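Troubleshooting: if your tokenizer reports a length mismatch, compare your output against this known-good record of 394 residues.
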Amino acid sequence: MHRRLPGGHRHHRSDARRSEASLGKKWAPRRAPSSTSSGSPPGIRTTVFLKGCPLRCQWCHNPESQGPRLELILRPERGIGCGTCVGVCKTGAIHRLLKNFGLSEDKPKAREAAMSRETNPMRPYLGRLVGVRDLATGIKLLQIELMEDEGRAVFADYKPGQFAFLSAFGAGEAPFGLAKSAERGPYLEFAVNALGHVTFTLHALDEGDPVGVRGPLGNGFPMDQLKGKNIVILGGGIGGAPLRPVIQTILDHREDYGHLTILWAARSPDLLVFKEEFDEWRTAWATDFHVTVDRGDENWTGRVGLITQLLEEVNPSPENAIAITCGPPIMIHFVFLTLKKLGFAPEQMLTTLEARMHCGIGKCGRCNLGEKFICTDGPVFWQYEIAEFLEGFL
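Known-good structure output:
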């Protein structure tokens, strides 16, 4: 491309490049001499493009230079502080945005800043597996000790209902609900169901093996808002894992909450989780505990039936009560319908949802439920927040 300048001369971009190179300057926009030709603007701006740059910045990106190599699209609002753009940008223009990125001008400092929790929620903390036990058929409870001071500080006061990503080195990461109250010891606990490559890899780990832990993420249950209320908890299968911290918090602060009703269910007896804690729940003060399975076996002497049938039999009063449920989506759907029939209003029903998310911070777009993101708006929702979207989640 070229433009005709006063005096009949032509100004080529290649000439501008050679001119810049001869002066030893970095590439930058330049202004050509003013034009006197009829109909021309007062000045002609000539933009000099740097060919081969992998960044796509609005100030110097040249569509003509696109090639088969990987390009980095510059989006300041999505920067995580890794410092890659600082090292790649050969024009130096990226330094104008360093404050928006929270970066330093040299890459080592930029990477150091990326280690800060406030600038990089994508960073996993190093952990060590200190305990593994079978929780149910195909489900293991992993107990993890965080090895970094920053990680221990971040997870010191997580809320019941929050979740974290576990990294199995060489396999990837996946999200899991935190299955223990933060007040009950320094270790983290996660119930892991072996369903895919990451979870099978986690199941194969031994005590002492390293893992990555990223979080805590999500909103958690509003435990302060539940104080003084009668609580009804309905857990189905592995969905009972994120409800366990709620139960532990209520039992550890019993005077802050009203009557507690726990309804626990699974498809079969071998899929009931936390069976070793049933006696503690059954004998706790002001607590009713009931358990049921969809199908019994030759050794099962307890109740057989759906959790919704058990709910109707127990018939908890909706007066000054909050119901909390977690389990398969179809179970959540029918538990909500049954609670409504018993007189519970939408603002008296809570649930926690899960999804196959990748980031946990609302960027990957894999967990949106209508206008809601399960990772950031949830995973804990009131029934009225998701009523119109729940059908599509089943």
